[in-house]
Amino acid sequence: MTRRFLGVAATLLSVTACAAIASAAPGDEPRAVRRAGGGGAALAGYLGLTDPQKASWRALHEQRREEMKPIVEEGRALRERLREAVAAPSPDPTAVGEATLALEAHRRKVRAEHEAFRARLEGLLDPGQKEKLKAFEAARRTRGGGGDGRRGPRPARRSPEARPVEG
Q1: Topology classification of domain 39-141
Q2: Distance (Å, rounded) from C-alpha 96 to C-alpha 64?
Q3: pTM (predicted TM-score)
């Protein structure tokens, strides 16, 4: 009986999923783009980029890739510096603190670079395309990406009062 129920439930679920995929309306692009993997070509198609916009979009990405190489290397060096400071036989609190602060300053720098790059990309779009981009990003956030580069939803922060007391 249970096996039969599970078989029927699985069949209904797969039929429902197939129907949902087949009925993706043209106005439902964020969902369709997400299913397509959200790659650059899918996003360009969803936004309706013209050929000159696509060329400019690619050029900006290439330029950013080259500009970010030294910044990425700097981040690696700073993370290694922090690892070494923490892994020392007798970690120096001042060295650990300085390495931590340097890494946090670097993260702020990367975040500022990202925001400047995003503004340049948005500068290529017309108002309708900007709205579509906002819709795409909202749909992407609901997929579980926290928008901060992490995979999956971010864990909820607990207040100090909610943390268990050790005793």
Answers
A1: Four Helix Bundle (Hemerythrin (Met), subunit A) (1.20.120)
A2: 31
A3: 0.58
